Amino acid sequence: MDILKNIRVVLVEPIFGGNIGSVCRAINNNGITDLAIVAPRPETDWEDARKLACQAKEQFEAIKTFETLADAVADCTVVAGTSARTGFYRDTAYSPKEFAPIGLESAKDHKIALVFGREDKGLFNEELALCTHIIQIPSDALYTSLNLSHAVYVCCYEMYCAAGIFVPSEEKAEEASSDLRERMFEVWREMMVQTEFTHKQKLEHMMMGLRRIFTRGKLTVPDVKILMGLAKQSIWVADQWNKEKTANEHE
Ligand code: SAH
After folding, report:
1. Does residue 19 contact residue 122 with C-beta atoms inside 8 Å?
2. Which CA distances in Å does 16 have to 153, 242, 246?
3. Separation of 202 CA from ligand 1 center, angstroms?
4. Which of these three, 137, 163, 189, is where a domain ends?
């Protein structure tokens, strides 16, 4: 079973529809699809929620509702509550990054929950008491409390990264061999002479500079071909220029 499917995001009495919609999007961005709301409020603007869910409309339709937090997490082993505040038993809080491997370990075989509080009052102590772990997102003392959907994003993002599902795109072109690189440097050396870019005495010094520049990153075969083509073209232009100069001298 897909490990991320075992992660349930639980929002306790959220107020703003915009936040609920943004949470739908945030969890889907991170491969999570189980969203529960505890005690939905009658005043919530559900049209706003739908709008901010954007392309996560299916997620929006799939929101489960529960009367109490205990009901929402009844089938979960690990229950991680999130809080910006200190005190109570928050002093042993984990950062989202620290919590991620712990949560995933349980999510291999069981449902786990990430619980988020109300925009105005957070989670109550009796709700935190149901939690096996507390997550505190590092934030500056200037303003420690994050927007609800941002807090959801950060926690889900760490779970997603720790799950190792994302495969970053990588350079597909083959890396240039020493032989190819050296052939390129040869053409550049000739180009520097033909274009009279540098005096003969300074040529080797210049070549070392070029080597340092071109080997700072990773040169691929197409990169080397571009650089070689540029130097060859410059040699050709310099050649034309020299021929014209000689012809003019004979006039
Ligand atoms: N005024 C509330 C803040 C609520 S913010 C309070 O003082 O608790 C809404 C929810 O976002 C919080 O209940 C929590 O679930 C989450 N959240 C916001 N900032 C957070 C942080 N720095 N660390 C962990 N969770 C945070």
Report:
1. no
2. 16, 75, 81
3. 64
4. 163
Range of the domain at 69: 2-163
pLDDT in tens, the chain (251 residues): 489 999 999 999 999 999 999 999 999 999 999 999 999 999 999 999 999 999 999 999 999 999 999 999 999 999 999 999 877 666 789 999 999 999 999 999 999 999 999 999 999 999 999 999 999 999 999 999 999 999 999 999 999 999 999 998 988 999 999 999 999 999 999 999 999 999 889 999 999 999 999 999 999 999 999 999 999 999 999 999 989 988 888 77
User: 52 alpha carbon to ligand 1 midpoint, in Å?
Assistant: 20
pTM attached to this predicted model: 0.83
121 and 190 share one domain: no
Neighbour tally for 82: CB within 10 Å: 27
Residues 189 and 152 in one domain: no
Whose C-alpha lies nearest to ligand 1, atom 21?
A: 84
Q: Give yes or no: residues 154 and 206 share one domain.
A: no
Number of separate domains in the chain: 2
Spatial neighbors of 18 by CB under 8 A, at least 6 apart, are 45, 48, 49, 51, 52
Separation of CA 151 and ligand 1 centre (Å): 7
Assess whether 155 and 183 both reside in one domain: no
